[in-house]
Structure formats: structure tokens, C-alpha cells
Amino acid sequence: MRATRVSEGIYRLSANVSNILFEGMWPVPNGVAMNSYIVKGEKCAIIDGVCAWDGVPETLLAQLDELEIDVRDLDYVIINHMEPDHSGWLDAFRNVREDFIIYTSERARPLLEAFYGITGNIKLVKSGDTLDLGAGRVLAFEEIPNVHWPETMATYDTKSGTLFPCDAFGSFGAVDNDAPYDDTLQEEQIEFFEREMERYYANIVTSFSSATQKAIEKVKGLDVKVIAPGHGIVWRRDPGRVIRSYTRLTGYSQGPARAEIAVLWGSMYGMTEMAVQPVIDAIESQKVKTRVHRIPESHIGYVLDSVLQSSGVVLAMPTYEYKMFPPMAAVLDEIGKKKIVNRRAFRLGSYGWSGGAQKELDEIVTRNKMKWEFLEPVEFKGRPTEEDVARIRQRGIELARAVKSWALAD
Ligand SMILES: Cc1cc2nc3c(=O)[nH]c(=O)nc-3n(C[C@H](O)[C@H](O)[C@H](O)COP(=O)(O)O)c2cc1C
Ligand SMILES: [Fe+2]
Ligand SMILES: [Fe+2]
How many domains are contained in the chain? Predict the structure, then answer.
């Protein structure tokens, strides 16, 4: 864990975590940063803890020492979000100090009790409530429910214009603690975090895109000069850039997205596979980029990212026990649950005697209200004939053209 200065009286405490699956399921090959912040007036507040520190009180104390902050001065603990990646440190913090006051939203109260048995010393705040730290430093609270849990709120330092939005505006990717700010990074490093942000968004935020849109509207009403999220880098030079990125991503979940097509395919014995390269070639002949994933080999974390970025989707899979190839059904259902809606799509696949994959596909798309607009599917018995392949190529071209005319410009 390292402490750095964001601006006068504001410090970022951060630890990078790697070799984990985030939330127990999402791959983070480039790690993820867990940030908390200390805001100093005459009194001191800590905003969002980090569970990533080793839990040994000395580690936190050493960091505070470095900042010349006495733990006894940490009067206020501000919990923007109760997910244990931000609140899990409370147990350990109680070992170094017992009598702090928690500022949090009404909906966080039962979670505080259920997770940590904390029932006292809680001040419940609503949008517009403030906390005066003295020395001209007033923190204002803004509820941003369902980004990412129902209790989520953001904290805004009125003195410096710094917004602490927790999960919102966050990204995956470990952060070099010598240079954790956009103004200390090269353009290609910022772009790295923007790519990490896309997968972060697709994996953990996209289901809450409409709540995120509302949160962005609220943020636009504030004079935000710095964005200091719970994960990723701090946006000090150009907070508008991350707001624009998030606005774009909320739009992608509703469609259209980029002029790209995600090709998701699975095959047991290679019959469906025979039609996969032809459809990719046909799409690319129209100068439309593809993002190809074999199912189930590709982790759902990456598949969701590709589908979120793409305006078009090809689903290629055989029939299996009168239904869809099961790992593809699971993936499609997950995409539906994540509410990635309104796509142009095409399905192809092999069957042996009766088919059945198409029926299950229709069920999943309807059940999840996905509003995907499909071209007529191409199904073939066993190996695809030359005519089948020709039809598949034709559909690939049609899909690519539809996507090109509908997608958003980059
Ligand atoms: C375990 C298993 C179950 C299958 N169930 C069905 C089925 O219910 N209906 C059907 O028409 N074909 C069924 N098939 C046949 C496959 O759909 C057919 O072999 C197809 O060509 C496989 O395509 P692939 O090589 O791309 O996996 C089944 C095949 C297997 C191995
Ligand atoms: Fe969260
Ligand atoms: Fe988080």
C-alpha cells in the first residue's frame, strides 16, 4: 500500500491486487487497484477503505504516519459503497480505533449490521447533506443508487471540486503508485486504463447502465475538477475524459455500439466450425472488425467485453440434446442478464436429426428482453454444403453492412 498526495489536504491510499478473480469470478490479468482517500480539514475523514491492505494495523498506521496523520484524528469514516472490496477493512480498522463515526446512506445501514455487526455511531446522509471538516472543507453527499449496489453514494469535496464516486468511473488494471494520476501518465498508459475500464464496465457495471446514466447526470450538475474513484487512476487533468468514456459505455449497453461484430462460436466435432471462418471472412470483407471467441474456452469476462463493444453478434453453435450447445446457452443467458440489449445478430449451426438450438435461443432472447434483431438463421444437417456456406457468407455481408450503417462512430 502506498500513499500519494492528490491535492492540498487530499491523499490517496492504494494497494494493487493481482492473482485473483475479482468478485470471485472476473479475470484481472493486469491486476486492479483498490483506492481509499483521506481528506483533511481541521478534522479528518477517510473515504472508502481498502480491503487489500494486509489487515495488520501497523500497515495502515505506517501509511498515516507518512502523511503525518494520527489515527486518533480519523474521526469520520465515509462509506460510499458497502461491497466488501471497500468496506472489508472495517473489522481491522476497529482494532486500531473504536470510536469513529460512519457517514453513509440509509440503505447501507442494514448491510453494516449484517456484514460487520455495526449498529452504532452511524450518521445516515441523503443527497445534499454535508459534513464540515473545518478549515473551509465541506464534504457533500450525493446518492447514486445502484451504481453498483442499492446503497451507493458519492462524496464531493466542495473545496477542491474532487468527486469520490467509488465504483463509478473506475477501471481494472494495477496502477503504478509513483504516477497514479492522468497528468503523470503518457497517453498510451491512459489508453491502457480506458481499455481496462471497458472490461470493468462490461463485467461489473453494465447491468446498472441506466442507474449509471442517472449518476452521470448528477455529476454533471457539480463543478467536478478531479475524479478520484475506488479503482484505477485519478483524473486530475481531464475528468471530462472519464465522464465521456462512461457515457459512451452506458450507451453501448443500450446499442448501438462500435462498428464491430462479436463472433461467438462453439462446436463439438467441427461441423459448425467449418462455417465460422467463412462468416468471419465475409464480415471482414466489408471492413468490419470482428472479435472472435470460442465458447466455452473464452472466459465470460472477455466475451461480455466484446459483446458490449460490438453492435453486431454472430452466434454459431450446434444442437445438443434437443437444445442449444449448453455452454453457449449459458453465455447468451449471461449476456441477457447483463442487459446488453438491442444488437443486430445472426445465428448459424449444425444439427443431426431434429435441431432444437434455435428454439432455445429464441427463448433466452425473449426471456431476457434482449431486443436483438436476427437475420434469418442458417442451420445445416451435419457438414455445411457449399450452398450453406454461400448463404452464410451472404448473411455475414448483410450483417456487416447493417452494423456499419447503424453503429456509432468511434
Ligand atoms: C451429445 C450430443 C447430443 C446431440 N443432440 C442432438 C439433438 O438433440 N438434435 C439434433 O438434431 N442433433 C443432436 N446432436 C447432433 C449434433 O447436433 C450434430 O452432430 C452436429 O453436426 C454437431 O455439430 P458440431 O460438430 O459443430 O458440434 C447431438 C450430438 C451430440 C454429440
Ligand atoms: Fe462494487
Ligand atoms: Fe469496488
Answer: 2
- Enter the pTM of the model: 0.95
Q: Residue range 167-189: average pLDDT?
A: 96
Q: Which atom of ligand 1 is nearest to the CA of 269?
A: 25
At 183-194, the pLDDT tens digits run: 999 999 999 999
Residue 371 within a domain: yes
Of all residues in the chain, the percent with pLDDT exceeding 90 is 86
Which residues neighbour 19 within 8 Å (Cβ) at sequence distance 6 or greater? none
DSSP states of 83-115: SHHHHTTHHHHHHH-S--EEEEEGGGHHHHHHH
- Give the CATH number for residue 341: 3.40.50.360
- Which ligand 1 atom sits nearest the alpha carbon of residue 268? 27
Residues 49, 193: one domain?
yes
Question: 151 C-alpha vs ligand 2 centroid, how far in Å?
Answer: 10
Element (H, E) at 130: strand 130-134
pLDDT digit string, tens, across residues 18-45: 889 999 999 999 999 999 999 999 999 9
Pocket probe mutation, ligand 1, options 319, 353, 360, max atoms within 8 Å of Cβ: 319
Q: What does the pLDDT look like over 206-255, one tens digit per residue?
A: 999 999 999 999 999 999 999 999 999 999 999 999 999 999 999 999 99
CB of 270 closer than 6 angstroms to any ligand 1 atom: yes
For the Cβ of 359 lying below 6 angstroms from any atom of ligand 1, the answer is: no
Helical segments of 263-320, H only: 276-285, 300-309
Residue labelled with grid coordinates 489508453: 191
Ligand 1 centre from 343 Cα, in Å? 27
Ion ligand 2 — residues with CB < 5 Å: 83, 148, 167
The alpha carbon dihedral of 222, 127, 93, 99 has a sign of: positive
Q: How far is the CA of 203 from the centre of ligand 3 (A)?
A: 12
Q: Given a cut of 60, is residue 53 above it in pLDDT?
A: no
Any domain includes 397:
yes
